[in-house]
Amino acid sequence: MTNAAELQASLEAQLKGEIMRMYQEVGDHPDREFHFYHGREAAEMFGYPQEWLDRAPSGAVASFAGVGNPLERGNLRSGETVLDLGSGAGLDAIIASRQVGPTGKVIGIDMNPAMCLKAKANADAGGTAMECREGRMEQIPLPDASVDVIISNGVINLSFHKRRVVQEMFRVLKPGGRMSITDIVSAKQLSQSIVNDPKLWAS
Amino acid sequence: MFRLLEESGFEEVRSAVVPNFRFRKSSTQHAAEAYGVKAVMMTAMKPASA
Hints:
heterodimer, A: alpha/beta, Rossmann fold, 9 helices, globular, B: alpha+beta, two-stranded antiparallel sheet
């Protein structure tokens, strides 16, 4: 492996660790303050209807760490299969599960198995069905053309391999399937000091 | 992201800024503004023929 490749691999490993640590902390200690808004305050800021939040399990609402509302334009329909890429504590997946109903299916993917357990527990507490699989968005553990809709909230920006993520999204969507995501973008190239700092990148 | 979606075969790619997004910490918000960081909503469709 070349020095550049070794550096890249090292950065990616550090980034993965930092992301897992940060979002696990939001999940385990939602009462703490973070540099981003989270919980009900953030969801209300992004326009989640009160009714959605009132019906969702308090644990899922408290640990919400999204950057917008991907369900606003998702137009989910009864019976659809939905993939939530980076499902975290599960709020979006749980709301989606209510929207697609008992004939539909919601699958969350998260690289942190502890967050999958948390999302599943939150879904169970709210009386909704969701499946959560440990996996990476660069290698989605689903067959080709298997989902109708992909939602994601503030996750894709965390990947060093965004093209690969988008290709995987295309692969798992059925023909005619759609995606509705919210995420962070920057108009300018981030400085090397930010790119090389997993704590800042994870932010 | 917009370009990546189109290059990967998605159609009807649309984006809009999430109007109320901001960071809690002012230092982070200022740094984000310096780089033109914003939250966006994106929708797109995989062609029915794909």
